[in-house]
Design a protein that fits this description.
Blueprint (H helix, E strand, L loop, with lengths): L19 E7 L6 E4 L14 E5 L3 H50 L1 E6 L4 E3 L16 H7 L9 E5 L13 E5 L1 H12 L7 E6 L3 H12 L6 H13 L6 H8 L3 H16 L1 H10 L7 H11 L2 H17 L5 H20 L4 E5 L6 E7 L5 E5 L7 H15 L5
Parallel strand pairs: 5-7, 6-8
Antiparallel strand pairs: 1-2, 1-3, 4-8, 6-7, 9-10, 10-11
Helix pairs in contact: 2-3, 5-7, 7-8, 7-9, 8-10, 10-11
Length: 402
């Protein structure tokens, strides 16, 4: 048996609640414990030995402390249960609302509800270029929403599909028409700290149906060529339509018109620097179909591509705001300068005789726009042979002089 001193808090009858010496003897075999010369109750413990302890006991403080801890625990437990019940109730309420919404959609096709603008996100292919939305673009809507005028036209939404990733856990709907109104409403709530509820028609539409409705609804405010171009390109990219022919047929659009619009998608994918130049320095929405067509033709030539992209890069670096016309003409001029440099390349070729030894004439550039052909009056070549030699030289330099 061993002895050691330690502070030992214990429960004793009230009459002996004071600083006392506690000595207890424990049988290692049975684990039974006997407390000697105190009023402590017996208790058990395995493998213990005799211990001599000094116990500082204040029963009243100990008792009050434990009761307080017990009461606090019960309060916390009760609070947790209440929160859990409220959370479950909210989940049940949301599920009930969603069921009601789906039922109403099935019965009536569409109906109008009020929603928090923070409960909806924009559909993946919205038509309008979302990054171009700002306070300036939406100024009139922000003013209306923040005054007695309010919202004039509802937006169009659908319950968010299960396979669509939410930007946060509060999202319940996708906006497929009225993205400017949604942006303005969210700005009023988040930035101006005003309460605002969006009026919204809710419809249960597939991706294709939503895209058709988006185009039809947004036609009330004329789309730019860029918006049509990006919209059609994204519909093909995400598989809404298999190919250009199917898109043109189902949208009832002339195939050649679709081709023109799809060039915007090609330019954005292959030459994002040019899109960035119009976006940062002027107005991307002013980029025209004919401009894109001309740029893509020039960009097929590697030397012109290099010149155009270098020009775009230098303009972006300078950061000076330009009109869309000035920016476009600057890029075209960069390509033209490359073209003129090619045309000034020196040309001087000798036209040889039949054996390839004696020069019977020259093929020489006399100015930027003229090439002189000089043939000796006496030659061993026949007219046909001379035509053949000249044809070779013309074919060689014809592209330069176009």
């Amino acid at each position: 048996m061993t002895k050691r001193k330690l502070n030992f808090p214990g429960f004793v009858p009230k009459k002996i609640a004071s600083n006392i010496n506690v000595e207890k003897e424990i049988e290692p075999e049975t684990g039974s414990e006997t407390n000697i010369n105190t009023g402590l109750k017996k208790r058990t413990g395995a493998g213990m030995t005799k211990i001599s302890e000094t116990a500082s006991i204040n029963l009243k403080d100990d008792y009050n402390r434990l009761k307080l801890e017990e009461r606090n625990f019960k309060i916390k437990e009760s609070d947790f249960q209440n929160r859990e019940q409220k959370f479950e109730s909210k989940i049940n309420q949301l599920e009930l609302e969603q069921k009601k919404v789906k039922k109403l959609i099935e019965e009536e096709g569409e109906f109008c509800i009020d929603i928090d603008p923070r409960e909806c996100q924009v559909i993946k292919i919205p038509g309008r270029i979302q990054k171009l939305l700002n306070e300036q673009v939406c100024d009139n809507l922000i003013t209306d929403f923040n005054s007695h005028i309010g919202q004039k036209e509802p937006i169009y939404i659908r319950p968010i599909p299960d396979d669509v990733e939410k930007i946060n856990d509060n999202i319940k709907y996708e906006v497929f028409a009225g993205t400017r109104r949604r942006w303005a409403a969210e700005h009023v709530v988040n930035e101006l700290n005003q309460k605002f509820r969006l009026k919204a028609f809710i419809k249960n539409l597939s991706d294709e149906e939503a895209s058709v409705f988006t185009e039809k609804e947004n036609a009330k405010v004329e789309w730019s060529d860029v918006e049509f171009g990006f919209f059609y390109s994204e519909l093909l990219a995400n598989g809404t339509y298999k190919n250009q022919q199917e898109l043109a047929k189902k949208r009832n659009i002339d195939k050649s018109m679709v081709t023109e619009y799809l060039r915007f998608g090609i330019l954005r994918e292959s030459f994002p620097l040019i899109i960035s130049a119009f976006d940062n320095l002027s107005n991307l929405l002013e980029l025209r179909k004919l401009w894109v067509k001309k740029l893509l033709m020039l960009l097929e030539d590697k030397s012109k591509e290099k010149a155009i992209l270098l020009k775009a890069s230098s303009l972006i670096k300078a950061g000076k705001k330009l009109s869309s016309n000035v920016l476009y003409n600057s890029l075209i001029k960069a390509a033209d300068n490359t073209y003129k440099t090619d045309r000034l390349e020196a040309i001087k070729e000798s036209i040889k005789n039949k054996k390839g030894k004696e020069s019977i004439g020259t093929f020489t550039r006399s100015s930027v726009n003229n090439i002189d052909i000089k043939i000796k009056s006496k030659s061993t070549l026949t007219k046909e042979e001379l035509k053949k030699e000249l044809s070779i030289l013309i074919d060689k330099y014809y592209k330069v002089n176009m």
